[in-house]
């Protein structure tokens, strides 16, 4: 009898009587049950009780009955469910469930009234079926959303609004906190973090729950088993139907590596700035200190030349000329090095600088070279920028004078223009000169880099290096577009808001 012997006399009971195991399988059924369902005695044994029901009622009946099949022995409950009779018609029944160690017994008696109508009417059955389908869709959607939240790389946690205990965490939270969700759920921050840190967290939580808007915490330190971490956290209050805070939602992103990288970059920038200041100071001091002995050499060479020129042989006069020319070139180099060092160390405060006025001054200073070379210089409309007028004037002078110097056979044609490029101004100084090989474009802006010998074009090789330092001080960059024989277009940008 499968361990479910029917009580003596149960065969004579007119009510439907079933004995089910914990899975809902029929182990015994009395004669009334078999007769009502049109099955021979013993024909129900081993069948699932739920399979005896119409398909549209099975899910609902399962939800009603299964909790009691695994209940405690002696527990009792009532539920209603229709079953098919031998002629195929549905019979509404009220079932008494009595729990046992092995399952439960079902005692069925006919039901009438509204409860019967709900189970028997097509509308009621269809409503039950639709409700079950809706429940399944909601459960499926909930599982889908749960899986998304659980797999997100951001730390997600939910706390109750009263005790601030964790009621939900995802995998990223488990990994960061170093605890399983079973260890986290139902406990608060003071169970896991140092007191001051936990006080900080809960204090922020209370502020969030007292308001109506999310609170952003850009940097939040947290001690974990893996060490100190830094989080960017947003905390959001969740309200119930009456507008009272019910939960607190937290979303955190671990920014530790980003913060460490920024700090390393800050330290490197500070070290580079310190090194540059020392280099500027060295260049300034060295060039300044070199000027006096160089001036002495040049002066005495000039005295010797004036006093003994013509009295010594021609070779001596030539040597004196070399000394004088060398001292003069060295003095120009030192002056250029001083100018290069002063760009960063002795620049003037930034003020509105009218580039139209600066270029008028530049062309006035270069008018002799312009006349000697028969050059044509065209200047378009220029903006007013925020910068050091003295340095910007030097920048324009360096670029225009280079356009006049490095000319070809034809008279120089120089065009200076400016354009609004959004966050900055874009300038161009274009010429029709001898041009520059592409491989020399970057090297051109380094100190003491010359592409031509001193006998071809005079200069120190510092003009463009100084120009780049000026542009960089003003938050821009400078470059050249050129090919040999095709002229050059020196371009640079200046930030509008430095």
Please tell me about this protein's structure.
The chain has 498 residues and is of the alpha+beta class. It has 4 domains: 10-142, Beta-Lactamase, CATH 3.30.450; 152-254, PAS domain (Beta-Lactamase, 2-Layer Sandwich); 265-344, Helix Hairpins, CATH 1.10.287; 348-495, Heat Shock Protein 90, CATH 3.30.565. Helix content is 43%, strand content 24%. The chain has 13 helices and 17 strands. It has a 5-stranded antiparallel beta sheet with strand order 2-1-5-4-3. The protein has a 5-stranded antiparallel beta sheet with strand order 7-6-10-9-8, with helices on both faces. The radius of gyration is 47 Å and the shape is rod-shaped.
Strand content: 15-25%
Number of strands: 17
| Strand order of the biggest β-sheet | 2-1-5-4-3
CATH fold topology of the largest domain: Heat Shock Protein 90
Distance between the termini: 94 Å
Question: Total helix count?
Answer: 13
CATH H-level superfamily title of the largest domain:
Histidine kinase-like ATPase, C-terminal domain
Q: How would you classify the helix and strand content by structural class?
A: alpha+beta
The major beta sheet can be summarized as: 5 strands, antiparallel
| Order of H and E elements | EEHHEEEHHEEHHHEEEHHEHHEEHEEHEE
Q: Regarding CATH, which class of the largest domain?
A: Alpha Beta
Instruction: Give the total of domains.
Output: 4
What is the molecular shape? rod-shaped
The whole-number mean of residue pLDDT values reads 82
Q: Uncertain runs with pLDDT below 50, 5 residues or more?
A: 119-124
